[in-house]
Amino acid sequence: MTTVGLIGLGAMGSGMASSLRRAGHSVQVFDVRREVAETFTHAGGTAHDTLASLGAACDVVVSVVVNAAQTEAVLFGDGSTPGCTASMKPGSVFVMCSTVDPNWSVALEARLEALGLRYVDAPISGGAAKAASGQMTMMTAAKPEAYAVAEPFLNAMAAKVYKLGDSAGAGSKVKIINQLLAGVHIAAAAEAMALGLREGVDPAALYEVITHSAGNSWMFENRMAHVLAADYTPLSAVDIFVKDLGLVLDMARASKFPLPLSSTAHQMFMQASTAGFAKEDDSAVIKIFPGIELPKGKA
Asked: Please, what are the domains in the chain?
């Protein structure tokens, strides 16, 4: 019986682990916040104190951390403690769900193959609610032998598992293009709402009209609701789009491809980050606009 482990019980990872458990799998978990891992096990599953312990126990390891640097630490350790590759059995599969440079993902596949391990390039999208309900999207690329082992777990975590190639890189490229649109849409939504506020339009009325008109987008509908509620609790933080749009621009720069809208959106998130809103919800990009009074939410 194949055993699955999940590393990183954040907003997305905790929902993914719950989806795996709901599908009937015995789920092994690790999080740097020991109390979070222990809380997950109250309804079943096993928490591990170390990455090496989890790696030894699992045939498939799913990593849901923030970026490539954290993924490196998960796999290869941080200099003082070993990562999960120190103990993973030959033929085991590592599923990487972070948004990363596609070239790094391609190189990682080769590094893991040299250790006798298989790899699935599998960035995710959909947000915490869809992760918790097993309805998110996975953009994957992997060799057939990696899919053969990992596929039941991918299907347990996501409603849509797109197979985009038979080697790493394609999944990460599609995710980065998705992030281009997501970042530009959030920035455009914030700009539109800010203009409405500047012009004295009632923000709730503006939201109602736009969400029932051709100018609507999923990001406007979702993120401007946060602005109306004055709730900038980070489901996805400003600095996530500083990183992700930076990856978008890096990929395009390598082929000398112009991205004027992405560049502008990146600068907007950079401005919001340096103004002190780095850890707030990404809808806080609206706070860069001068001369507007933002909604205060309900008392």
From this structure: 4-168 (3.40.50.720), 173-288 (1.10.1040.10)
Residue 209, C-beta contacts closer than 8 angstroms, at least 6 positions apart: none
Instruction: For residue 163, indicate whether it is catalytic.
Output: no
Beta pairing class for 124-125 and 136-142 = antiparallel
pLDDT at residue 2, as a whole number: 82
pLDDT tens, position by position, 23-80:
999 999 999 999 999 999 988 889 999 999 999 999 999 999 999 999 999 999 988 8
Q: How many CA atoms lie within 13 A of 8 on its CB side?
A: 20
Q: What is the pTM of this model?
A: 0.93
Give the span between the Cα atoms of 147 and 118, in whole angstroms: 9
- Model pLDDT for residues 178-204, shown as the tens digit of each residue: 999 999 999 999 999 999 999 999 999
Q: Active site residue: 173, 175, 243, 287, which one?
A: 175
Please tell me the distance from the alpha carbon of residue 293 to that of residue 220, in angstroms, as a whole number.
Answer: 19
Q: Which residues contact 63 (CB under 8 A, 6 or more apart)?
A: 6, 7, 8, 71, 74, 75, 94, 95, 96, 97, 98
